[in-house]
Amino acid sequence: MSDPGSLESPLAGALRRIGDRWTLLVVKALLEQPRRFGELQRSVPGVATNVLSARLRDLERHGLVVAEPYSTRPLRVVYRATARAAELGGVLRLLGDWSVRSGGAEPPVHALCGTTLQVRYYCPTCHDLAEDEEGVWV
């Protein structure tokens, strides 16, 4: 966590924790299903063993991944995404959608009417869309 007195923006704080080349790919793979180290390495092609180990340690430290032992001799673990990591699922979908749109592909559409989907902030208490309100930042 950043010092409450620091001037780091929320986005900068997120990028500090998950903003490198491999971390979100590891999270995506673990959101699909729990995996052992070798399975995880195969599901994230190109990641080096030492890089994957470092990313898993960082993700554990930030509470996004847990390593659960399934064998004690030798010690072997399966990695699982936590509820905190599951909150990143929406972010991953948005990043994927942005990549598709910026690459010129067709954006996702509503299956019933064919309208292009949009993401909006919604207040579950008053059932209202929050448009350009203070506190809604990028």
Describe the structure concisely:
The chain has 138 residues and is an alpha+beta fold. It is built from 6 helices and 5 strands.
Secondary structure layout plus pairing:
Layout: H1 10-18, H2 23-32, E1 35-36, H3 37-43, H4 49-61, E2 65-72, E3 75-81, H5 83-86, H6 89-102, E4 121-123, E5 128-130
Antiparallel strand pairs: 1-3, 2-3, 4-5
Explain this structure.
With 138 residues, the chain is an alpha+beta fold. The chain has 2 domains: 10-86, Arc Repressor Mutant, subunit A (Orthogonal Bundle), CATH 1.10.10.10; 90-130, no CATH class. Helices cover 41% and strands 17% of the residues. The strands form 2 sheets. The protein has a 3-stranded antiparallel β-sheet. A two-stranded antiparallel ribbon has the order 4-5. Strand 4 (121-123) and strand 5 (128-130) form a beta hairpin.
Features of the shown structure:
single chain; about 140 residues; alpha+beta; Arc Repressor Mutant, subunit A; 2 domains; three-stranded antiparallel beta sheet; two-stranded antiparallel sheet; 5 strands; globular
